[in-house]
Design goal:
This protein has 10 helices and 48 strands. By secondary structure, the chain is mainly beta.
Length: about 850
């Protein structure tokens, strides 16, 4: 029996054996076992509680675990929790997290990112569904909480599928505490962090300061020099052999705690960081191996026809991505012949938290401010030269090839400002449960400037005298001239005003039976303004932009704005029953709503990019148990998610010109269902073992392009869905593995009477293959293993360890994206109107990295 068969069998049998047998097993003897597992405190319900006592599925990691495992990023966190995926696209500003099969391709993030309960999630304007993440290296962490299932009632609009909450350490009132850690590893990787915390005025005022610096030269080299000349024999700039996947970051965080009275404490924090990331190592996998004509598959083995009015109108690569050679990584030059700089984020944040104990209740105020300035300059066509050639006139000039290429550099700047104010009133020491009520106000202002050559250089303008450049190989045209001295960039401004009212009541009917209800009402108003109606899609279809005065009529008054207003109520209901102090069963029903708004990625006119909210009803049945003097913890959950109105990017006709333009629609419905198991066992005084497993069945139940496109399904829709109506129902949801497994082990043993210990840690993650696109005909990324380990010595004050990430040097590609093939994918079926062939752009994984990490602590653990 192979691994996949075993895991699928387990997915069917384990839920019944774990959930419904917990009560009888609780009667087994519980003596003679190891020390009890430490109680993990979490703040999932906005107060400190035992994770085993709440009817919520949560994985939590304390500061010791974080330090030993080298958890410095969200990617490090996610690989420890089966059922949660972290994917990054072409840049650091295009990151996506999914939980229990719920992910996003457009709109705001589906998973909220929080620091001490403050949501700092963002939404990328130009990368649909993506966003930048925080620099977690700056945070002196008490713990990390990964919460599964909709948490909109307490955490707000972004906790659609769940949330990741980073809980920081409070400044120390008990004396001076210092911590310094350093790391040196292969690929010139260095990581230095330090913190100091202590009282300034005894029992009244304390402060903490964290600083961090990180640098890595990158793990791969660009190999464009392997192509010494382009299609016209011109030398390629060998200077673009830049290192890839490298990054640098520096920053600081200052926190101050003031307790003027026993009943009042005030915490203020200020954070500043600068992050720079090289372009990612990306390689094209395969040329099209399946071709289509009029929405139907052509016979196997049909060769590509690049003639004008060829015999097929679309092709794609179908297969499973395994590993990719570094020599296949060939980013092209910039428009000026140089290297791409990658991405840059400068982030400043501040927060003020007030807790006022006023007897039976506590009044809390949480104020936060965030500003993020991001720059991005990356390759988007991955080719030098002129791309696919076709015979423009095969009758009179057979063999005479014409080439078409777009200078498709991707360059933009985005300035995001967020302000949030929360007011909360909650119960103190109510003997029948807990309650709270709250109100939140959120505003966000985003300003984007898009300098990308893909939108402001239209090949059709080559034929418009006075507007085009002189380079015959790039058909360049400076759009700035058409704006008569105006802003040379496409600008998109997005303003969001949101307010919400929320509350929670948890009531103990008996000592064993409790119920809770949570609810949030949220009202969103989003306005988008743009200075031009050009979009990338209409450019690639070679139409003259509709707002170029002197070339075409200007039917659209510019700048153009549109507004979207939505209101929703998101409840959550839970019931839990405690058989014993160590065994609980619970059930919950929750609704999540992801806000509507505008799909600004490749947007032309705001009205064509409006989208309605997504909705999710989530059902969960779970159990939390501890056994054998609390040396064994077994938690399990069954879940079912009913997911409707997913926001999907499509090409739509412009309502004025009827040209194909970038738009967005709400698709049909999807379901995700599965089972999760979490086991932690203190086997003896030295050995700790952990296992996590997630089975997720995620598929589209209603996804018909003929119903969601304003002009009906296209030939391409019918092709990728293998259906005459473009019905993709039954397709796997992209990016979701059916099976995921995590194994954790630790051996710690004393080696001297002075308290010196040696330890060996290991984590292993296995993940099933995943569909790359939401379609019936889709490529996949293969299943893979990732193994990390640490070997070291420690005492109460210091530790030194040798560590390795990706210990087995598994080079299997973890993620890829379906993408237009600019180099070999321009067929001539309907010259100027056909879709390009597609391939897969694979992101090379980090190789094995070995290094040394040391930590010194003074004044505290």
């Amino acid at each position: 029996m192979n691994m996949k068969t075993m895991l699928r069998w387990s997915a069917l049998s384990a839920p019944l054996s774990v959930i419904f047998m917990t009560a009888p097993i609780a009667l087994m003897p519980e003596t003679g076992w190891s020390e009890p597992i430490d109680v993990m405190t979490v703040s999932v319900r906005r107060r400190d509680e035992n994770a085993q006592d709440i009817p919520v599925s949560v994985s939590a990691f304390d500061s010791d675990f974080i330090e030993k495992q080298g958890v410095f990023s969200t990617k490090d966190v996610v690989k420890l929790v089966p059922g949660v995926q972290f994917d990054q696209g072409f840049s650091a500003a295009d990151t996506r997290i999914s939980i229990r099969g719920i992910n996003n391709s457009r709109g705001r993030a589906s998973v909220a990112m929080l620091i001490d309960g403050i949501d700092i999630s963002g939404e990328n304007i130009t990368a649909g569904g993506g966003g930048s993440l925080l620099n977690t290296k700056l945070l002196d962490l008490e713990r990390i909480e990964v919460i599964k299932g909709p948490q909109a009632a307490l955490y707000g609009r972004n906790a659609f599928a769940g949330a990741i909450n980073y809980v920081t350490k409070q400044p120390s009132m008990d004396g001076l505490v210092m911590n310094i850690s350093g790391e040196a590893a292969e690929y010139d990787t260095y990581n230095l962090r330090g913190s100091i915390s202590g009282p300034i005025i005894a029992d009244t005022l304390a402060a903490s300061l964290n600083v961090a610096g990180f640098s890595s030269e990158g793990y791969y080299d660009n190999n464009i020099s392997n192509q010494p000349v382009n299609d016209f024999g011109q030398p390629v700039d060998a200077g673009n052999t830049q290192e890839l996947n490298g990054s640098e970051s520096v920053g600081m965080r200052l926190a101050v705690l003031w307790t003027p009275t026993e009943n009042l404490d005030i915490t203020g924090a200020f954070t500043y960081s600068e992050d720079e990331s090289d372009p990612r190592a990306v390689a094209k996998v395969g040329n099209a191996n399946q071709f289509y004509l009029d929405g139907a598959r052509l016979a196997p083995g049909t060769a590509a026809d690049f003639s004008f009015m060829g015999t097929q109108d679309y092709g794609q690569w179908l297969g499973t991505v395994d590993s990719v050679e570094e020599s296949d990584v060939m980013l092209s030059q910039t428009g000026t012949g140089g290297a791409f700089s990658g991405s840059e984020d400068d982030r400043m944040g501040a927060s003020l938290k007030i807790n006022w104990d006023i007897g039976p209740t506590t009044l809390k105020s949480i104020t936060s401010y965030l500003n993020n300035e991001a720059k991005l300059y990356e390759d988007a066509d991955f080719q030098n030269g002129l791309g696919t050639g076709f015979e423009a006139d095969p009758v009179n000039f057979p063999g005479a090839m014409t080439y078409l290429s777009l200078a498709n550099d991707y360059q933009d700047e985005t300035d995001t400002t967020q302000f949030t104010q929360d007011l909360i009133l909650e119960s103190n020491n109510w003997d029948r449960g807990i309650w709270l009520i709250g109100a939140q106000y959120f505003i966000e202002e985003v300003e984007n400037k898009d300098f990308s050559l893909g939108w402001n250089n239209d090949p059709s303008l080559f034929f418009a005298p006075g507007y085009c450049g002189t380079d015959p190989f790039q058909f360049s045209c400076d759009y700035a001239q058409s704006l008569a001295g105006g802003d040379p960039a496409k600008s998109i401004d997005r303003d969001t005003d949101s307010y919400s009212l929320y509350g929670m009541l948890s009531f103990d009917f008996t000592e064993k039976l409790s119920a809770s209800v949570e609810v949030r009402y949220v009202h969103d108003e989003i306005e988008v303004t743009t200075n031009t109606a050009i979009d990338r899609v209409s450019q690639y279809f070679m139409h003259v932009p509709i707002d170029l005065a002197g070339i075409a009529p200007q039917p659209v008054p510019l700048p153009e704005s549109a507004k979207q207003t939505t209101s929703d109520i998101n409840p959550r209901f839970a019931l839990d029953y405690k058989f014993t102090d160590q065994t609980m069963i619970y059930g919950s029903v929750a609704k999540g709503t992801k806000p509507g708004g505008f799909g600004t990625s490749q947007m032309s006119r705001p009205e064509t990019a409006k989208m309605d909210p997504e909705t999710l009803w989530a059902y969960e049945l779970g159990t939390k148990t501890t056994w054998f003097d609390q040396s064994l913890r077994v938690n399990a959950a069954l879940f079912f998610n009913d997911y409707k109105d997913r926001q999907v990017g499509v090409t739509v006709p412009d309502p004025v010109t009827f040209w194909p333009s970038a738009g967005i629609v709400n698709a049909g419905a999807a379901e995700t269902k599965g089972f999760e198991l979490d086991v932690l066992w203190l086997a003896n005084d030295y050995l700790t073992l952990g296992l996590g497993y997630a089975y997720t069945d995620a598929e589209w139940t209603d996804f018909n392009y003929d119903e969601i496109r304003p002009n009906g399904a296209s030939d391409k829709d019918r092709a990728i869905c293998q259906d005459p109506n473009g019905d993709c129902s039954g397709a796997d949801i992209a990016g979701i593995p059916e099976n995921a497994l995590t194994l954790i082990g630790n051996w710690t043993q004393q080696i001297s009477s002075s308290g010196l210990e040696w330890f060996l840690n290991g984590t292993a993650m296995w993940q099933d293959e995943r569909a790359i696109q939401d379609r019936v005909d889709t490529p996949y990324v293969d299943d893979f293993w990732r193994v990390d380990g640490q070997l070291g010595i420690q005492n109460d004050s210091w530790s030194v360890m040798l560590f390795a990430t990706n210990l087995l040097d598994d080079d299997t590609v973890v993620w890829g994206q379906g993408y237009q093939d600019f180099e070999n994918g321009m067929l001539g079926g309907n010259f100027g109107g056909e879709p390009r062939d597609e391939s897969v752009m694979a992101f090379l994984p980090d190789p094995r990295i070995i290094g040394v990490r040391a930590t010194y602590r003074f004044g505290g653990k």
